[in-house]
Amino acid sequence: MNEHGASAKLRKQLLAKGLVFHWKIHDPYAGGVPDHFIEGVNRDLWIESKHLKELPKKPSTIIDLCNEKKFLSLLQQEWLRRRDKKRHDCAVLVTCDDGTAALFLNRTWEIPYTTEDFRAKLQPFKDIVEQIVALT
């Protein structure tokens, strides 16, 4: 599963859960806009999706989502920080090829994680969808 496949899977599962509105965003004119906007009953959520094909082998290897060459661009980081400061309604979703994912809220995407710590945050994708539904 790549980033595109994960986005399609997220949309399908959210719609199956009865969420009011999900928008997969592709905006070539405004850099940094997150990939997803989810309008829920209680609140909205902006989500930037990233895909990690496989985790590093060494447990001590650092995974830094703010590394603009591998994960979040500087514009994405700016956008997420600004939105989090104003509304606390954004997250970063990292999916993996093995069907697991991690959802980073409250600017926890800014924390560099060891592979071991990152692996501990991973959950089955369906559990992450449930978490998103509960948040919205």
Brief characterization of the structure:
This protein is α+β, with helices and mostly antiparallel strands. The chain contains four helices and eight strands. The protein has helices at 3-16, 74-87, 115-121, 125-135, and strands at residues 21-24, 36-39, 44-52, 62-63, 90-96, 100-105, 113-114, 123-124.
Which helices and strands appear, and what pairs or packs with what?
Layout: H1 3-16, E1 21-24, E2 36-39, E3 44-52, E4 62-63, H2 74-87, E5 90-96, E6 100-105, E7 113-114, H3 115-121, E8 123-124, H4 125-135
Parallel strand pairs: 3-5
Antiparallel strand pairs: 1-2, 2-3, 4-7, 5-6, 6-8
Task: Provide a descriptive summary of the structure in words.
The chain is 34% helix and 26% strand. It is of the alpha+beta class. It has a 6-stranded mixed sheet with strand order 1-2-3-5-6-8, sandwiched between helices. A two-stranded antiparallel sheet has the order 4-7. Strand 5 and strand 6 form a beta hairpin. The protein is globular and about 40 Å long. The two termini are 25 Å apart.
